[in-house]
Amino acid sequence: MSQIVHLCSKNCSLIIKLARVPEILHWGNKIEQIDEDILLSTERPISQARLDVDVPLSLCPELGSGHFNAPGIEGHRNGYDWAPVFNTTEHYSSESCAVFTLRDDVANLELKIEIELDYDSDVVKKRISVTNLEHSKYYLTKLSSTLPLPHHANELMTFHGRWSREFQTHRQAFSHGGFMQENRRGRTSHENFPGLFAGSNNFDQQNGQVWGFHLGWSGNHQLRADVKSDGRRFVQAGELLLAGEVRLDYMQTYSTPWLYACASNTGLNGISDRFHRYVRANIIRFPENKPRPVHLNTWEGIYFEHDPEYIMKMASEAAEMGVERFIIDDGWFVGRSGERSALGDWYLDEKKYPNGLEPVIEHVNQQGMEFGLWVEPEMISKDSILYREHPEWVLELKGYHQPSGRWQYVLNLQNKDCFNYLFERLSELLTRYNIGYLKWDMNRELVQPGHVGRPAVNGQTKALYALLDKLLATHPKVEIESCSSGGGRIDFEILKRTHRFWASDCNDALERQTIQRGMSYFFPPEVMGAHIGPDESHTTRRCHHINMRGMTALSGHMGVELDPVKVPAEEKQAFAHYIALHKQYRPLLHSGRSFRLNASDNRQHISGVQSDDEMLITVCQLAMPDYALPAPLRISCVEPGASYQVNLVEMPETSFQLMKQRPSWLDKTLILSGDNLREIGLTLPILDPESALMVHLKRI
Ligand code: DGJ
Q1: Low-confidence residues of the chain: pLDDT under 70
Q2: For the Glycosyl hydrolase family 36 N-terminal domain, which residue ranges apply (predicted)?
Q3: Which one of 162, 502, 537 would you pick to mutate in the ligand 1 pocket, going by the greatest count of ligand atoms within 8 A of its CB?
Q4: Most-buried pick from 129, 277, 562, 607 (CB within 10 A)?
């Protein structure tokens, strides 16, 4: 006898049919009342030349029952028990969550499927656990979470990238076959962000039905979207397990990472709004009412050249510009003269800092700023005291040559002594010095990550989480940034134990526009580290006016990444101006609803953030405008019946080679109604390529 389980949130319904196995009948817009005939109205025909039975696209599709696409579970016992088929034995459900227990009494496996629908954000999270009920070992090769998509999800938007070019998007048709992404880099990676969107034809920022997915996991993963030959479609995501990585003994359990997903009726804006709500309420742990301090990070300013007197000068200049937290990046610890040495030796370099770190920290604090320090705990250089003492702590496979990456190696965090050493070092630094913030870096991929000879990405990732958890339990006030050569480790699970991401090592404001937009679909602005870099970008050598740099950094968690001592006074004033602007709008930027508007000129990015009574909109001209005159800015997210006071906040000083005369409203305050703003819009000035303006709307 089939039963129906109905999970409900503010705007969303998830209806599950429970027969032999649970199967989602509907996931999307809210259904107030489920029809009594739903089981009949959703019954599928059996087509010719196929199996004589209907095969459900269940919450864990089984090869053994005739699901010929990617199964949700794969594994074996020395070649046996490789095609399990389950029966539901128990289930529990409430309005917001359901737990199903399934058993295969032949293969002796038990599955537990947990699915939760968060009321406020409409975000679904799902994970599966498998337990081995038999005394012989079960070799699990795959356990993934599957969620179905409706037939009108015809297009995909996927993510790709590389170092200094994270979060690039790619659109593709989704009508036959599918898409698959496999990440074997041992960290979340720049290349394969574990997220994707599927939606109705031509979905865009503001329109269309879209389903969004993110796997919260910082190790290897597999993410796929498939269209079955019968037209049904689904997304599946889970950890990518290396051969032999998970071997379950009697009564041992393996659980997948959480898969987060949501459905929107209002294009990508609806997706980011839901993910942001969820992340703010359930993932981010940040002291309430504490504004996110504006940073100055020393990396692009001085690299490895550390002179405490000079650093204190930098700090004074930073404070004058309005910086609130000063972070000493790489180069402060003993023997760290460049990239090739000293990782692992987390002791102050007393040659560089003969009077200790205390005078620098005191100076920073006296300037009214917090102090932060860079570390890269998971790494070891061969040229280090630690390596000379503990070469056996390297994560590698004995008998093979382990290649270096940035001339460094990964430490095996599953080795208890190594774990304890790192905890002791970090904890001692946090106890000895007044450090409010750690920039936690991770600059290489895992190759042959072996622990006692067996594959260990899963173990390494969990040990990293445990190290962070232990450190935060001991030093609950410290804030941590997740950095991994920029944006190589950005995901929901690491965010549970960190407070901010360094979005990219690319500080080129033009590149950042695309990187930050991609990231903004999943993460709210307050966790997106965005810094004003030098006028000539260190990664691209492209030069940008301060307007473009300031406006691009302003919309995230703002900072500055250069040597303020070397910057001319005029430029410093400009930094101070953008920092002040950021602080003025910080409460809105860091708590409001983010959105993007479709631009008629596809060389423009239009994005904004709104609360119930105000709104900031940034228009960035990425390249030469497509037409001689810009299209009016039509703002769809205003209340049609409300009135707004509209002001220009910021625009580039240049732009006068493309425009002889500016619209006169730029120097005035306009009063405009919501329906005018939505339908007629606001005529904008002409922007130079690579420049940006900002408009403020206040509801009156
Ligand atoms: C890579 C990071 O992404 C940079 O910001 C910087 O911290 C360097 N590592 C330091 O080695």
Answers
A1: 1, 655
A2: 22-248
A3: 502
A4: 562
